Amino acid sequence: MKHNLNEKQKTIQMLARRFAEERIKPIRGELDERDSFPSFIMKELGDLDFFRIFIPEEYNGFGLGVLDLCLVMEEISRVCGGVGTSFAVNALGSYPIVKNGSSEQKKKYLPDIASGKKLCAFGLTEAEAGSDVGNIQTRAVQTETGFRISGSKLFITNGEVADIYVIIATIDPKKGIRGQTAFILEKGMPGFTFGKKENKMGIRASHTCELIFDGVEVTKDHLLGGVGRGFFLAMENFDHSRPGVGAQALGIAQGAYDEAIRYAKNRIQFGEPIVSQQGIKFMLADMATQIEAARCLIYQTARTIDSGAKKFSKESSMAKMFASDMAMKVTTDAVQILGGYGYMKDYPVEKMMRDAKITQIYEGTNQIQRVVIAQELIREI
Ligand SMILES: Cc1cc2nc3c(=O)[nH]c(=O)nc-3n(C[C@H](O)[C@H](O)[C@H](O)COP(=O)(O)OP(=O)(O)OC[C@H]3O[C@@H](n4cnc5c(N)ncnc54)[C@H](O)[C@@H]3O)c2cc1C
User: Fold this and answer.
1) Hey, which of 9, 56, 104, 380 has its CA 20 to 30 A from 349?
2) b/e map of 330-361 (b: 16 or more CB within 10 Å)?
3) Alpha-carbon torsion, ordered 179, 182, 187, 192, to 10 deg
4) Minimum CA distance residue for ligand 1 atom 35
5) From the CA of 289, how far away is ligand 1's center (Å)?
6) CA-to-CA distance for 240 and 316, rounded, in angstroms?
7) Does the annotation count 21 as an active-site position?
8) 217: which strand partners?
9) Catalytic residue among 198, 259, 350, 363
10) Rounded to the nearest whole angstrom, what is the distance from the C-alpha of residue 51 to the centroid of ligand 1?
11) What percent of the chain has pLDDT over 90?
12) Residue of 95, 133, 320, 365 with the most ligand 1 atoms within 8 Å of its CB, for mutation
């Protein structure tokens, strides 16, 4: 299906595909096995200017849009969901600065993010505040010079490998979401340390750990977007990033489908390739149709955002939810088409199935996406 990509987008897609095939594919199994974050791959992505995509031109970026970023996420994830996550979360951590940062904050942080010199992370989740983000307990107490931050954040992607962190704390838990406030922290600040590194089912080429804040003193210029704006900043961030999670899921599913059809054409059982069996043909037809449906939803949502639309929470949630549910189904079917071989680590589809699962969970579980979609639908009546 043609998706009317412009020449620049086709070039971005081609470069990302080539990089993923040549540089990531040969090592993805090893990264997964060793549970290892590939700093050198992130550096190469920076050298190839992929981090510049969504950074405004005045801060050494390309000033491009969500669709351009989704194309890169899709191509990287087609080969490795873990590297796709590490790349995507850099955008999740830096977009709040692009959108809400003061000109001093943008000048200070964005050029280094654009060049890939510094990586970002986004810290919202806590042990008692996952889906229930209103329950955040990390506390920011006002001081004479700024704020003192104490608490911790759980399951943070790019945790210890990032340099710049956007985190949400509360200035007063009694105020609920209206007390939540965003701050920019930097690695090495006194009192800012890292806890347990998670041992994950999938996306093992990404780094996930706990962030610990033990009375971290920050000056007022680390406040992002104003006191009491943190919750709204986080939700706005997710509205922009959820099509990207959809694109990760889409890429993973496409990679699994590519493996499955190739295998089905070559695997001989009952004297002919298994692809001759109607049972296999129908599975492949369903997989390809679902992948294409997800692609249409993601690209259209990204285009809506890039057109300057003001409201797109529903579409973003639909794109993330549909694509991730699709990816779980398609990768599971890919394992089925490869039979016993699909279950073995000699083939990449079992990793793809493990990698797909997280896209139904992070940046709001798919139950929470359904809550968001239903709320918007009811509001529209
Ligand atoms: C690998 C990984 C990376 C992550 N990276 C980040 C990151 O970089 N930054 C960050 O801030 N967070 C990150 N997260 C956290 C992630 O966003 C949360 O795990 C997720 O939002 C779910 O929260 P929870 O795990 O506490 O589950 P819970 O909220 O405890 O949910 C448990 C179950 O209950 C369901 N449920 C909860 N509430 C409702 C409801 N109202 N209606 C219906 N069902 C409901 C959920 O859908 C889920 O099935 C990451 C998580 C993982 C696993």
Assistant:
1) 9
2) bbbbbbebbeeebeeeebbbbbbbbbbbbbbe
3) 0
4) 367
5) 29
6) 7
7) no
8) 148
9) 363
10) 27
11) 99
12) 365
Mean pLDDT of 224-228: 97
Q: What are residue 172's phi and psi, to 5 degrees?
A: -165, 105
Q: Is the pLDDT of residue 203 over 90?
A: yes
The residue contributing the CA closest to ligand 1 atom 4 is 155
Residue 1 scores a pLDDT above 80: no
Give the up-direction half-sphere exposure of residue 143: CA atoms within 13 A in the CB hemisphere: 15
222: pLDDT confidence band, cut at 50, 70 and 90? very high
pLDDT at residue 2 in the model: 81
CB 283 within 8 A of CB 336: yes
Q: Please choose from 92, 94, 125 the residue to mutate so as to test ligand 1's pocket, defined by most ligand atoms within 8 A of CB.
A: 125
Q: Give the global pTM.
A: 0.98
Q: What's the chain's length in residues?
A: 381
Query: In the predicted model, what is the mean pLDDT of the chain?
Result: 97
In the three-class reduction of DSSP (H, G, I as helix; E, B as strand; rest coil), residue 321 is classed as: helix
* pLDDT of amino acid 165: 98
The answer to whether 372 and 314 have CB atoms below 8 angstroms apart is: yes
360 DSSP assignment: G
Q: Provide the terminal-to-terminal Cα distance of the chain, rounded to the nearest Å.
A: 34
CA distance 181 to 231: 7
Tell me how far apart the alpha carbons of residues 340 and 274 are, in angstroms, rounded to a whole number: 14
The closest-lying atom of ligand 1 relative to the alpha carbon of residue 157 is: 8
Main-chain phi, psi angles of 73, to 5 degrees:
-60, -40
* C-alpha distances in Å from residue 168, one per residue of 56, 192, 223, 319: 24, 14, 10, 25
* Largest separation between any pair of C-alpha atoms in the chain: 80
Tokens found for residue 260: 């499955």
CB atoms within 10 A of CB 34: 12
pLDDT in tens, 96-129: 999 999 999 999 999 999 999 999 999 999 999 9
* Ligand 1: centre distance to CA 323 (Å): 17
- Is residue 183 classed as helix, strand or coil in its secondary structure? strand
The 3-state DSSP class for residue 334 equals: helix
